[in-house]
Amino acid sequence: MEDNTNAVQDINVENQEEQKEEDYKSKYLYLLAEVDNYKKSKEKEIVEYIKYSNERLILDMLKVLDDFDSILKQDQDEKVKALYKALLSVLSHYGLEEMEVVGKDFSSDIAEAVATEEGGEGKGKIIEEVQKGYKLNGKIIRYPKVKISV
Q1: How far, in Å, are 6, 42, 86, 90, 95 from residue 49 at the CA level?
Q2: Which residues 6+ apart lie within 8 Å of 79 measured at CB?
Q3: Assigned fold of 55-149
Q4: What are the residue ranges spanned by the domains of the chain?
Q5: Alpha carbon distance 68, 145 (integer Å)
């Protein structure tokens, strides 16, 4: 009888050791997955940081683009146009793009209304862009100021 009791105890000890081993394995795999998720999260964060790291500089450069726009509205000098296009090309290389909103239905999600005009193409349509809007890598960094028809 004592042999049976010892045998049962040995089996229980083995089962406990196997259970501990399984617990350690599952904890190890869980921690491994957590570390992997953390790495992926940090990599994504770094990519986003790099993507928008120039945003402050580009926002300041928009003032220069606005000055070019003002000059080009008054004078169609080819040299000024060439400089404007060159600057816009450099900024577009870093993810800047002009927003095209004229003719679209007005929405406060894509533009800021600063004036209205009777008649026009249809109610709620953007009929004129007062100040250009820009996106940086798909994110709106300055909403266009527009005139809408009512």
Answers
A1: 64, 10, 26, 20, 13
A2: none
A3: Nucleotide Exchange Factor Grpe; Chain A, domain 2 (2.30.22)
A4: 1-53, 55-149
A5: 17
| 19-34: pLDDT as tens digits | 888 999 999 999 999 9
> What is the three-state SS of 103-130?
CCECCCCCCEEEEEECCCCCCCEEEEEE
Interval 76-86 mean pLDDT: 91
Give the position of tokens 């229980």. 12
Four-CA torsion 133, 134, 139, 144, nearest 10 degrees: 0
Report how far residue 135's alpha carbon sits from residue 58's, in angstroms, rounded to the nearest whole number.
10
Phi-psi sector, 85: left (phi>0), alpha (psi -120 to 50), beta = alpha
Q: CA distances (Å), 67 to each of 29, 57, 63, 141, in order?
A: 59, 16, 6, 18
Cβ contacts of 55 within 8 Å, gap of 6 or more: 136, 141
Q: Is the whole model's pTM more than 0.85, yes or no? A: no
Q: Please report how many Cα atoms fall inside a 13 Å half-sphere around the Cα of residue 135, on the Cβ side.
A: 12
